Amino acid sequence: MPATAYQQLVTIFTRLYRYEHLAAMVGWDQAVMMPPEGNEARGAAMAELDVLMHRTLTDATLAELLAAASREPLSDAEQASLREMQRQWQLANLLPASLIEAKALAGSKCSHAWRTQRANNDWDGFLANFRSVVSLAREEGILLSHQTGLSPYESLLNKYEPGMTCAELDRIFADVKSWLPELIQQAMAKQATETRITATGPFAIEAQRALGVEVMALLGFNFAAGRLDVSHHPFCGGVAEDVRITTRYTEADFSQSLMGIVHETGHARYEQNLPHATRHLPVGRARSMGIHESQSLAFEMQLGRNPAFLALITPLIEQHLGPQAAFTAANLAQIYTQVQPDFIRVDADELTYPAHVILRYEIERALINGEIEPDDVPALWDQKMQAYLGVDTTGNFKNGCMQDIHWTDGSFGYFPSYTLGAMYAAQYFATLRRLYPDLDQRIAEGDLAPIFTWLNTHIWQQASHLNTDELIRSATGESLNPRYFRQHLAQRYLA
Amino acid sequence: MPATAYQQLVTIFTRLYRYEHLAAMVGWDQAVMMPPEGNEARGAAMAELDVLMHRTLTDATLAELLAAASREPLSDAEQASLREMQRQWQLANLLPASLIEAKALAGSKCSHAWRTQRANNDWDGFLANFRSVVSLAREEGILLSHQTGLSPYESLLNKYEPGMTCAELDRIFADVKSWLPELIQQAMAKQATETRITATGPFAIEAQRALGVEVMALLGFNFAAGRLDVSHHPFCGGVAEDVRITTRYTEADFSQSLMGIVHETGHARYEQNLPHATRHLPVGRARSMGIHESQSLAFEMQLGRNPAFLALITPLIEQHLGPQAAFTAANLAQIYTQVQPDFIRVDADELTYPAHVILRYEIERALINGEIEPDDVPALWDQKMQAYLGVDTTGNFKNGCMQDIHWTDGSFGYFPSYTLGAMYAAQYFATLRRLYPDLDQRIAEGDLAPIFTWLNTHIWQQASHLNTDELIRSATGESLNPRYFRQHLAQRYLA
User: Fold this and answer.
1) Which of A352, A367, B239, B267 has the most CB atoms less than 10 A away?
2) How far is CA A107 from CA A54, A111, A136, A368, in A?
3) Is the keyword Coiled coil in the record (chains A, B) (predicted)?
């Protein structure tokens, strides 16, 4: 019996998964293990693999098979699988090769120059390259919009958050903007009256690592199918069968490496628990960037910075780092929830972080949809930072609109994922608290199974079998609702 | 101007080099970093890459391009390059895909079962799988021999040692056999009269590693283009631009990890110093397994176990491991040159090692050429072990003919490379001693530049631009001559 078109697609996408395995592993090695002089040959090998994967996805027979499979009698699960194959195919096929190449070149040139331009606060130098990046991203958005029927910006957003619209984001972010600035002020006023004991180092790297490993084990990380290593920028890489997370240590402060490990372990458990039966196909992969971030933020923000969890791990912290007055659950909770509006998004606390994201969303949407020009960015940035966080960035490009790598290589549409992730995570935990009214007590006692079982059933094992809204509704009973995020923040910062 | 056939070949073989980069890196990761549950997905990804590389090498256009290029006006260097491309093409194309697959299956089955069968001394169980492996290797040898005009065994040998014949090996090994057994006896008699102080551990792993790194630096390893890690079986992997060597440590003994590092550093420096202009093409790669081993053994046997070198590193050993009576250059030289005939090849000393190799060569040659059957192997093994080393292996299959992995997966023809490497290394150093009569004094003073400069000029930078005999003649003034090996051993063990 000849293979059906769908079966042939499974074979091709399985081969792609194996190529992606190679890409993930040499990518991890490049960030974690590779000595500097290996970089040129590594870059050439990775580019060759990119060409191979792109060629596989743009092969003419693939388009024919996708069309043929759509006429075959498929089960619901197979239809979902075909939908995700279509999606991956579209991402590779809707753009002409000349645009992909031009984007890669402009992005790489702008990113590379940005590393020194940022250090030199050189906005004019940056702008020269940035104009091309924006122009090509607009072109990409317009081309995609012909197929998607969405706006150019939404078309880029959908690469990371399939199904998300600007109307939805506007609704959600308008809600957040209506209460966040005041909440920040109230939290700061409250914290000004509290006393916080600073933990004093040095904290030996080996002790921090041992502590991190123990916390990973507590969080259910499977060390037989993954590793913890060190890299300059912490990330979660590798493949579902072999997840590689990284952190970075500084002897002066243990708190960042520890919470970084908790964050990456959230990403890792999602990957490690994708369904065995389909993880080699697009439908068996993580749903979206926002859902991935919702796992890391469920671990970091909902669980990790929760006083109950900090009470659970305080003995481990003492055991590995030695006792000190700062190591009480209450004081650690203060350390991990300190609010302070500041310039830099990646260093921002839980409460001010959404303001950084909303600001970027508003600017990049206007930029891609042609409502503003690259030259307008700094003034708009200054105005919004003042309005949302009361921070003055005038003339301070390096700590203002030049601080992120995302725009330098044309990754417009990615920023909203961070705050969507934080909101999904809050909504999961609101659901969990309804199911387990004694959740904090369970956490403090080390009974984390209810959380992991729920996430496994409702998120991890679902992979991309549902679309994002279906996934959230099936998990929590309703679509994304910023109310839970607000409740979580008010509870944590004002109660 | 359209690309010439030769230029098109360069493009294709450059792409292959990049695929090989991926294979080398994920192979290294598998041995050094990968957690156990990652193995199945890794195996699938590596097999997919094998398929891709094989498909690239067996593509019909490649045969046409090779034929067309041979009619183009090429420089001498290009002709050498084309010759090596032809060689790599032949290795992939002379065998039908069905035989390659059957070999892989039989080899994998036999190897896998061997791991437990060896532990159980189960020759009969092993024999059942081994017969298929031998039968397929004979078929391979016969098929190759139709093209090569060599005997079946020589055809397999030529996969590892291109240009080597049995007539040459017989001449060389007959020479060795004529003096080696007596030399072993004399060396043992001499050593029986000497006192050797054993170094007493434990030696902390971190201290052993720091010592190893310092010795690698002394030996010119470029840490900006390579790494030292740990694996169960030490090896030199990675790519020329990023060489990954491994060792293994035991707290009870520092001497093996240290000399293992010296050995792998020899392999590494060859790779790190292959010519930049051609290392992405077959002609710019290592000449043969024997020449590769000649680099590791030049470092380990000629340099590393030399009392002058041991004098040079004794202060480093003391510095990292603490002082003890065993740490004098003279005593370390005794430790590193102890002769003791025994069962196991990989644990054998410099003097008895060639006997292990010659025994295997004689048996595998007869086996592949159909002069003996797999059933005959143990009796022949016992007889030769008795004759060459006076060791009784009767009924002891696990420490006899079942000890090596090579035959289990059909790698017949590989063993001679080890002793050819030792002989080439001795011949290099005989040449160096003619050029630098004060070589030992220079070594003791840390002036290793003459050695590295000579190896770089005559071996490393030559890559595969010459054939092996041309390479050795151009480097040392004559073809491989076992006289230098004998002189070296007599000087070291009887003087």
Assistant:
1) B239
2) 18, 6, 9, 15
3) no
Strand order in the sheet with B242-247: B226-230, B242-247, B236-239
Other Cβ atoms less than 10 A from the Cβ of B198: the count is: 12
The C-alpha atoms of residue B89 and residue B60 are separated, in whole angstroms, by 11
**pTM as predicted:** 0.94
Contact B35 A226 (CB under 8 A): yes
Compute the nearest-CA separation of B287 from chain A (Å).
21
How far away is chain A from the Cα of B23, in angstroms, using its nearest Cα? 8
- Quick one: tokens of A195? 């006393």
From A17's Cα to the closest Cα of chain B, the distance in A is 8
What pLDDT score does A41 carry? 95
What's phi and psi for B416, nearest 5 deg?
A: -55, -30
Instruction: Determine the 3-state secondary structure of B328 from DSSP.
Output: coil
- Segments in chain B below pLDDT 70: 1
Instruction: Answer whether the bond into residue A202 is a cis peptide, omega within 30°.
Output: yes
Six token digits for residue B80: 């050498």
Which of A13, A15, A22 is the best mutation test for B, with the most CBs of B within 10 A? A22
Give the integer Cα–Cα distance in Å for B75 and B377: 49
- Alpha helices by DSSP H, listed for A33-122, are 39-58, 60-70, 76-93, 97-119
Rounded distance, CA A76 to CA A82, Å?
10
Q: What is the dihedral of CA B344, B349, B350, B353, to 10 degrees?
A: -20
Residue numbers in B near A42 (CB within 8 A): 21, 25, 241-242
Q: Report the pLDDT averaged over residues A302-324.
A: 97
Cis upstream peptide for B202 (omega within 30°): yes
Q: Answer for the pair A187, A351: CB distance below 8 angstroms, yes or no.
A: yes
Q: Which of B133, B167, B128 is nearest to B150 (CA)?
A: B167
Of A26, A33, A40, the CB nearest to B227: A33
Annotated ligand binding at B267? The verdict is: yes
Residue in B36, B42, B242 nearest the CB of A34: B242
Residues of B in contact with A21 (CB under 8 A): 26, 41-42, 44-45
Contact assignment for A239 to B15 by CB distance below 8 Å:
no
Spatial separation of the C-alpha atoms in residues B200 and B197, rounded to whole Å:
9
Contacts of B239 in chain A (CB under 8 A): 38, 41
**Taking CB atoms and an 8 Å limit, are B33 and A225 in contact across chains?**
no
Each residue's pLDDT tens digit, B31-43? 999 999 999 999 9
Amino acid at B104: A
Give the C-alpha separation, B29 to A17, whole Å: 18
Q: Rounded distance, CA B371 to CA B394, Å?
A: 22
User: Which among B429, B436, B435, B427 is positioned nearest to B479, based on CA atoms?
Assistant: B427
Of A15, A223, A224, the CB nearest to B48: A15
φ, ψ for residue B454, nearest 5 deg: -65, -45
Task: Please answer yes or no on whether A45 and B223 come within 8 Å at the CB atom.
Answer: no
Amino acid A101: pLDDT: 87
ipTM, two decimals, is 0.94
Q: Which among A213, A201, A210, A209 has a CA at the least distance from the CA of A253? A: A201
Q: What values do phi and psi take at B91, rounded to 5?
A: -60, -30
CA B289 to mean position of chain CA atoms: 5
Instruction: Tell me if B41 and A222 make a contact (CB, 8 A cut-off).
Output: no
What's the whole-number average pLDDT of chain A? Answer: 96
DSSP state of A350: T
Q: Which of A21, A25, A44 sits opposite B18 (nearest CB)?
A: A44
Out of B140, B154, B264, B362, the active site residue is B264
Q: What is the mean pLDDT of residues A249-278?
A: 97
Q: Which residue has the tokens 């003919």?
A: B401
| Length, in residues, of chain A | 495
